[in-house]
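User: Sequence recovery, please. Input:
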C-alpha cells in the first residue's frame, strides 16, 4: 500500500479561512497563511486552498495569498477557485502553487482539462468534483455545490481521467461538515474504476473515519477542514493513530 496523504483544506473567503456545514453557514476559522504554517509544521503532507469568494479582485488576491503561503511552507499545495484559463493557472504557479484545482470550469468546458495538461503537465492538474446523491444516483453539482446537473459522478470522473488530469478531489456534499465519515462506497468505486489518485473529502470527524476511508474507501489521500482548524484532531496524533491501524503514513 502506498503512503497515504493527510491534507488540510482551507476554504478562503475575503482573505480569511472559513468553514461551514453542507456548504453553508460559514464561520471564520483564522488567517490562511498562519494556518498553513502550523499545518506544515505539524506534519501535513499537502495543503489545499479553495477561494470560494468571487470578487473582481479575486485573481490578484489569490495570487498574493499563494505568494505568501509559498514563502512560509515547504510542502506541496494546491490552489482552486474560479480558475478558467491557461493564464489563471500560469499566474498561480508562478506565484508558488504546486498544483491547481478546477471544478465548474472543467464541467462547462471539458477541453480546458486537455489544454492545462498540455501546457503544465498532468501532475499539477487536479479536478475537483462536488456530488450529491439524488434518487440514489450521484450527481455532479457546480458553483460551490449550488447548481445541480444531470451529470453522473462516475462517468464524469472517467472522462476527467481520459482527458489527462493527475488527481480527482471528490467531495460528497451529503457528508460535508457532518463529521459522520466519508462517502466510502462511492470512493471505493472511483478508486477501483480509475487509475489516478482519489482524494476523499467531506465528512471527517474522528480518527477512525480516516482509517475507514483508506481501508474501505481505498482513497489515496484524505482531506479535512474544521477538525483541524478548530483543533478537534491534531495531525501528528492522527498520523500516529493511523500508523497503529496499519495505514502507511509519513511521520
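Assistant: Recovered sequence (251 residues):
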Amino acid at each position: 500500500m502506498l503512503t497515504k496523504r493527510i491534507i488540510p483544506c482551507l476554504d478562503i473567503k475575503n482573505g480569511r479561512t472559513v468553514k461551514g456545514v453542507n456548504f453553508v453557514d460559514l464561520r471564520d476559522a483564522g488567517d490562511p497563511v498562519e494556518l498553513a504554517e502550523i499545518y506544515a509544521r505539524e506534519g501535513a503532507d499537502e495543503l489545499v486552498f479553495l477561494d470560494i469568494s468571487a470578487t473582481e479582485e479575486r485573481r490578484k488576491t489569490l495570487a498574493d495569498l499563494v505568494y505568501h503561503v509559498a514563502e512560509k511552507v515547504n510542502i506541496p499545495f494546491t490552489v482552486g477557485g474560479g480558475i478558467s484559463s491557461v493564464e489563471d493557472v500560469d499566474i498561480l504557479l508562478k506565484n508558488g502553487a504546486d498544483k491547481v484545482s478546477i471544478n465548474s470550469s472543467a464541467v462547462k468546458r471539458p477541453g480546458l482539462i486537455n489544454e492545462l495538461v498540455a501546457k503544465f503537465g498532468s501532475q499539477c492538474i487536479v479536478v475537483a468534483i462536488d456530488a450529491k446523491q439524488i434518487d440514489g444516483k450521484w450527481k455532479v453539482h457546480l458553483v460551490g455545490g449550488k447548481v445541480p446537473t444531470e451529470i453522473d459522478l462516475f462517468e464524469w470522473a472517467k472522462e476527467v481521467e481520459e482527458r489527462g488530469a493527475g488527481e480527482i478531489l471528490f467531495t460528497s456534499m451529503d457528508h460535508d461538515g457532518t463529521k459522520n465519515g466519508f462517502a466510502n462506497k462511492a470512493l471505493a468505486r472511483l478508486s477501483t474504476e480509475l487509475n489516478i489518485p482519489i482524494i476523499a473529502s467531506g465528512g471527517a470527524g474522528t480518527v477512525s473515519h480516516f482509517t475507514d476511508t483508506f481501508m474501505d474507501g481505498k482513497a489515496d489521500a484524505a482531506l479535512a477542514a474544521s477538525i483541524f482548524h478548530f483543533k478537534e484532531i491534531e495531525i501528528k496524533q492522527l498520523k500516529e493513530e493511523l500508523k497503529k491501524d496499519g495505514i502507511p503514513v509519513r511521520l
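The longest helix spans residues 58-72.
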